[in-house]
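## retry 2 of 3
previous attempt timed out at serialization; input unchanged, resubmitting
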Amino acid sequence: MGLIQAGNLDKRVRIQAVIETDDGGGGQTQAWTDVATVWASITPGFGREFTTARQLTPELSHVITIRYRSWVTAKHRIVYGSRIFPIHAVADTNERHEQLVLTCSELTPTTAAVVYP
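## retry succeeded, writing output
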């Protein structure tokens, strides 16, 4: 893969991180917050179905490419409009610190309820 072309980054996405706050009762509450808004390309990968709690659940994979950011990890997620993409793997293409290729899945309403109760 060569240098990323600016014209290929045609989607404005948000990178989010989870934060924990005190819930007032001695516990912690988790919430997602935006940490950056960047340009990206989103390419569909493959789809599959699996069984969760005796229900057939669809899962879609995507490859999302963004400009290099050293702090992006699999603990983050990408949000594009109302679509949510948990990051499973982060690759620094050719280790040149030019772009990141993120392997993600897309949460459907069914999987979102399972992953993010």
